[in-house]
Structure formats: structure tokens, C-alpha cells
């Protein structure tokens, strides 16, 4: 193992020298080309000539090694920095990856609940708002940001009871504190619909059937109502600001906001994570990365 590491290190040194010293690279190419041409012209008629050429090649190699050593010594500071970068960057990358958790990849981690919000959750049971006409979800704006939204389920009763109450509290706080009226775009999602959305590509969802909290009634996609229409476009400053507030309120209620994800940000998505729920997916059943 040590021999392999040493070999790789020497190879990295040689490659770095050729990369950072263009004069060396050009000179070496010219000398080797001239040597090859000279050997070709001399021919290989006798063993004695072969030995002579071998000796000449050895002398040439010695000269080249001397030149390399001299050039490397003259540029030793740059070479030392290059080698230091080759040694430190992989270790730094591994350290950074281990010390920075990406929320979307750890579906077993739940969010802390604000104490004041916890008291609200123990109080009255909120009642879901009446359903909206499906035609409101068939506009080009809605389908741009949430494909096939008209076919989505908005049945509050299919959501997990605890998650449903938390989401209703989010709706209440958003309207009472910030003046945003929220609307449920999609709640429970069947495995068949999850597979249908996954087939549309990674810009829609990274989760296959069974790998999303939607299948367990623990996730929802939401938007806002403005002037009698569903406002969902993240390019709209008013909507974008609403989503930021929505994420803050949802996090205070112990939920995970899709806007905090690093790969596929989903500003309208919130979920209530529970350890072991997505682990129920069997081998080959899909990844829980950024369940949406």
C-alpha cells in the first residue's frame, strides 16, 4: 500500500512539473523527438550499435534528469505550493463534507420545535379550509412550477394528523402575522403519481415511488392566494418573500422546508420527518435524497 502511495505521489510530482513548467514540457518533447529520429536513422544492424545507442540514451536521460532537477530547484517554491495543494485539497474536501450536513440527505433528522409553538399545537384542533375549485390549479403559472397540479390530491384528511395540525398552524400564522393567505397545492401523493412525476426528470423530483414523505401523508406543497388566483411563481418578489417567511414558520413548528435543500430547492415544500419511515423502502426502491 505504501509503495502504491509513493508511486502515485511521484507520478503526481511528474505531472505537476509538466503542467506548471511549459518550457520543460516543450524542451523534453523536442529532445525526445530528436533522439527518436536519431535512433531511427542509425538503424539496428548489430548488437554493438544497439549497445552504443543504449548508452547514448542513458547519457541523454542523465542529462535530462539534470535539467529537470535544475529547473525544479529554480522553481522550487511554485512546485512546493503545487505539491502542498495536491496533498491538502483532498483532505480538506473530505473534512468539509463530513462537517457540513446537507438537510436533504438526512431524512431521519427532525427539526426542533419552538416552545411557544409547541403550546399552540397542544391547544385547539384547527379545521382545514374548504376545498378550492380545481380550475385554479390549471393555470400556466401553476403548472410551470408544479407540473400536473390539477390532478394532485388536496384532501386534508389524507394527511397525518400531527402534520396536518402543524401545517394549519403555519397557514394561520402566515395570514395573521404576515398577511399571506396560503393554499394547499398537493398533500398526499400516491406511489403511482410519484412515479409519474419522477419520470418527468430531476428538475421535478429526485424521489421515486415510496421515497417521498408525500406517500406517508407527511409532506405538502403550498402556494399563496392573491386576487383570487394561485400565486406560485418564485420569480415574483412578493411570492419569494412569502416563501422565506413560510420556511421560517414551518421550521419553528419542527418541519423541514424544501427551500433549505442544496440540490433541488423546492420553496413550496414542507415535510415532517420521522425516523424509519423512508427506511421502509426496500432495496432498489429509490433514494430518499431530497424527498419531494
Automatic annotation (TrEMBL):
Residues 211-272 form the Peptidase M15C domain. It comes from the Bacteria. InterPro entries: Peptidase_M15C, Zn_M74/Hedgehog-like. The chain crosses the membrane at residues 78-98. GO terms for molecular function: peptidase activity. Keywords: Membrane, Transmembrane, Transmembrane helix. This is M15 family metallopeptidase.
Amino acid at each position: 500500500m505504501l509503495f502504491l502511495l509513493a508511486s502515485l505521489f511521484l507520478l503526481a510530482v511528474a505531472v505537476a512539473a509538466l503542467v506548471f513548467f511549459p518550457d520543460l514540457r516543450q524542451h523534453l518533447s523536442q529532445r525526445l523527438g530528436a533522439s527518436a529520429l536519431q535512433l531511427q536513422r542509425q538503424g539496428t544492424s548489430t548488437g554493438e550499435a544497439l549497445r552504443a545507442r543504449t548508452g547514448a540514451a542513458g547519457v541523454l536521460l542523465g542529462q535530462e534528469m539534470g535539467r529537470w532537477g535544475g529547473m525544479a530547484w529554480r522553481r522550487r517554491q511554485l512546485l512546493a505550493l503545487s505539491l502542498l495543494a495536491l496533498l491538502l485539497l483532498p483532505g480538506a474536501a473530505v473534512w468539509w463534507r463530513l462537517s457540513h450536513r446537507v438537510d436533504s440527505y438526512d431524512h431521519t433528522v427532525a427539526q426542533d420545535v419552538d416552545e411557544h409553538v409547541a403550546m399552540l399545537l397542544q391547544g385547539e384542533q384547527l379545521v382545514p379550509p374548504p376545498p378550492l375549485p380545481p380550475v385554479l390549479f390549471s393555470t400556466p403559472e401553476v403548472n410551470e412550477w408544479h407540473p400536473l397540479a390539477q390532478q394532485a390530491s388536496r384532501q386534508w384528511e389524507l394527511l397525518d394528523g400531527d402534520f396536518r395540525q402543524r401545517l394549519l398552524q403555519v397557514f394561520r400564522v402566515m395570514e395573521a402575522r404576515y398577511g399571506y393567505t396560503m393554499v394547499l397545492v398537493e398533500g398526499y401523493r400516491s406511489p403511482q403519481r410519484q412515479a409519474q412525476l419522477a419520470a418527468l426528470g430531476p428538475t421535478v423530483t429526485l424521489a421515486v415511488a415510496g421515497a417521498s414523505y408525500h406517500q406517508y401523508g407527511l409532506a405538502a406543497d403550498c402556494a399563496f392566494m392573491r386576487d383570487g388566483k394561485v400565486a406560485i411563481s418564485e420569480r415574483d418578489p412578493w411570492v419569494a418573500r412569502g416563501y422565506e417567511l413560510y420556511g421560517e414558520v414551518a421550521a419553528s413548528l419542527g418541519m423541514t422546508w424544501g427551500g433549505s435543500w442544496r440540490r433541488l430547492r423546492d420553496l413550496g415544500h414542507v415535510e415532517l420527518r420521522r425516523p424509519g419511515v423512508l427506511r421502509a423502502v426496500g432495496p432498489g426502491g429509490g433514494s430518499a435524497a431530497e424527498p419531494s
